[in-house]
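Support case: user asked for a sample of complex input and structure output to validate their parser. Sending the pair below.
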Amino acid sequence: MTAEGLILKIDCPDRPGLVARIAGYVADYGANLLELNQFTDRVNHRFFARLEIDTNGIDVSVEDFIDGFGTLGRACQARWHFRRLPFLMRTAVLVTRTDHCLNEVLWRTRLGEMPVEVTSVIGNRDDCREIAEKEGIPFHGIDMAGDAKEEGFRRIAAILRDEGVELIVLARFMQILPQWLCEEFGGRIINIHHSFLPAFVGANPYRRAYERGVKLIGATCHYVTTELDAGPIIEQEVARVEHYHTVNDLIRLGRDCERSALARGIRYHVHDRTILDGNRAIVFPD
Amino acid sequence: MTAEGLILKIDCPDRPGLVARIAGYVADYGANLLELNQFTDRVNHRFFARLEIDTNGIDVSVEDFIDGFGTLGRACQARWHFRRLPFLMRTAVLVTRTDHCLNEVLWRTRLGEMPVEVTSVIGNRDDCREIAEKEGIPFHGIDMAGDAKEEGFRRIAAILRDEGVELIVLARFMQILPQWLCEEFGGRIINIHHSFLPAFVGANPYRRAYERGVKLIGATCHYVTTELDAGPIIEQEVARVEHYHTVNDLIRLGRDCERSALARGIRYHVHDRTILDGNRAIVFPD
Amino acid sequence: MTAEGLILKIDCPDRPGLVARIAGYVADYGANLLELNQFTDRVNHRFFARLEIDTNGIDVSVEDFIDGFGTLGRACQARWHFRRLPFLMRTAVLVTRTDHCLNEVLWRTRLGEMPVEVTSVIGNRDDCREIAEKEGIPFHGIDMAGDAKEEGFRRIAAILRDEGVELIVLARFMQILPQWLCEEFGGRIINIHHSFLPAFVGANPYRRAYERGVKLIGATCHYVTTELDAGPIIEQEVARVEHYHTVNDLIRLGRDCERSALARGIRYHVHDRTILDGNRAIVFPD
Amino acid sequence: MTAEGLILKIDCPDRPGLVARIAGYVADYGANLLELNQFTDRVNHRFFARLEIDTNGIDVSVEDFIDGFGTLGRACQARWHFRRLPFLMRTAVLVTRTDHCLNEVLWRTRLGEMPVEVTSVIGNRDDCREIAEKEGIPFHGIDMAGDAKEEGFRRIAAILRDEGVELIVLARFMQILPQWLCEEFGGRIINIHHSFLPAFVGANPYRRAYERGVKLIGATCHYVTTELDAGPIIEQEVARVEHYHTVNDLIRLGRDCERSALARGIRYHVHDRTILDGNRAIVFPD
């Protein structure tokens, strides 16, 4: 990724000449197209692209460059989004007990692998408080037991709004989000599910995988929608298992799948490498 | 695998001293234990083992060695099976249109990778007739359209009985077997399903995988039981897919998964490396 | 891949505006850009692209469209290549004894997976003659034992020239090509080496892998250059091995790596999805 | 792994009846064989086995059980080793700058995935001091620059002897150990090398992988011997790379390979699942 510049994500109905027009706009103002990923969905006749643009040499202001694109975007009936680089995506991480996914996010963030700023860790249990606080990140403990659940979600939403997060990571958060919350933060919530979806939707996937006697277990990183475990899939990972692996072994082996699928999924999102195409996620990996 | 000798598969309720007694029996008559694989299911307290035995040095006849084991086997309340080596497993392959799985089986058989003798290829369409006949293998075309289906399955069963097959491979055979046939040949029918089960049970898994937007597709080699696509899994294989892959691409990429999962599944079965443990298959790979 | 149209491969020194100019040329004459893959090597400041173009709607002849691009290509100091679709790449397959790679190429060709026409199979032994001839493909047996080797290579080159092949596949051809032949057919010879290069360059890689005790074996599909096993790598595949695998097991497991790495490597080449960047191969996979 | 009991590792010249005698010994004193892994190297005629034994029901003391085995072990000319469970393997971790491998070891230890007690972290730079100390583990900073190197290694050896470690993990320790140290701690030093050995022995493997244009990078976990990067391999891991990955991307992707190969390698070692067979490591995975 460039140190400075712009990322443009765009999608619109397909028609001839789109690349020429978009790349032409970039070139016309003296910007340099560093990377272009493009995909045409020939079933639904829709065009998707991601551009990485070096704006060092442009002969207008960056604001002007972005504004001026609107005319072209509207002419194409496009949805588009510019991101200015460098940036850090404000991110909240929601957890319950297990810490491996949280640890992975924190470690990669600290290493600079991902342009993320973790604004807070929110837990319906206190197990991960110490990890967050050692890292200097605020931890919000939210009671969600029994009748407190509804109020708990309202408090979580308030925190998310307050912190202005652009990404919410469910890092093995063992609560089903209410519909209104999924809708309010649509396209900004990433979950890690501990099975290779659509196998084992719902609870206890490792136990069910053991009982079914599968030879592969997995994990799925997906956007959260109002339908449980049915949102657009960003990344999946599998691991081989044998007959001698117990449910606990599956849980252990699965943790590694979860960590890597989640890490890659977040990476693609924060680098603006994902675009939604109905219930499918277009991913331009790096 | 040894050129000459015995393979013993055994399973029984777990108790202390089983390995000592079984290996002791082998040693007592001067046979040599070449390979021992053992597994104890600690949930169900059941013991499973596979032994490869060199009988060159034994001081009784092989028949006597096998017979004499019965006393020990019964004392352990075991199920057991001896196979004399070398052997070729008599195998029928059932097909419909596509030939990639059939080709794979024939190629590996010809190469001597698997101790298999394909006694016949049975098809409800004629698409694979030429491949079988070029190889010098009888092809039985069985009409199964509409009302002919029931009679078709009776004819297939008659062929299988007649040829005394020990293995029936459903190599993309696009018909659901009737319950009576599954039961008659229980534990001897291997299917290749074109998804990573339990995802996408039933028809058109590649189309459904495309629509769900999964990032991995797969294939599952399993024993056939009376419940569709729910029998014990022997082997699974997956391949990575991207948003730009169409349903046809998934079919193409899936073929490679199907070929390798089926080939390995058959290999484990014909080498007596599988033992059923309820609805799970214990597999001692080689 | 489109049924009809053009594939353009191009590479040139990097400069701003390249995508706009190339895509602009396509749009200017009413052609439709179906797929664009682009890569900028920021180390060597070189631009690489592959375009798939639907020419159905163009308002000049295809010849004229191709010719006219020359002005732009030269202005960019580019190397470029147009391929008209549909096409079949004329291909010779060189073999010695083992047939698994040859079989794989023939099977995928027959299935229509790859736009290849196998013009002949050339062997320095007769082991694969029957396979070729059953398929209706001429087999040239070339004696290369001892002193006959030099004359043998001259005869092979004469056949390749005569048949006007655009691709030469070394499908486990166990002879080292002379320098003059590598040079004459530079960029058109693909080899499958039975190790994950650069490990185990040269002879007997499986034996050496066994002796080294590696836990992964592999295969490498690469372009042939005058330096043994050192040409640009197109594709690699690995498989897990265990301590109990003998050299023969490694050979068996390796065959599957060789088949799939070679098949994908050929696929990328014949779909014009590879561009050489010094000793590295840029591959835009599909 | 059992909560309480014994692990027996044994290897000896192959002969008939070994499993019967060893398992017989276990059964004779009322112990229960929970798991048996066995391998016969038919090339070198050597027998290897690992037994997991439940000693709860034995009718002698565990010491006596262990002592009494000596007669059988000597009769078989065996090397053998008993480990009493539960146990924690005393382990020192050597580091330089990068912390991902250290983090992985600490995280898995904390989680109880591996029976390890990290006695100290030793670094020739101070970069990892904070991580160790946050975890409550002593950090020894050892100056090894220039002339201080020899003295540095003597100090390290003194610490290792002093702490009575049974395992030394080189977690991206960027110094070549002197021969005397490799010999003194032979079979107890595990290194993670950042390539799929034997490719890219020595320095800068990621840069060399980039320059060679490989499509797979990897990591190798191996025992350290006096020959650089040539010791017995315990585990290897690979990741797919593309032409657009820079050297820095390879380093990033490689970290994940290093972490998982090292974690699994350590796991196998501390669970006594490895036995050396010349320069090859027999690994009975779990």
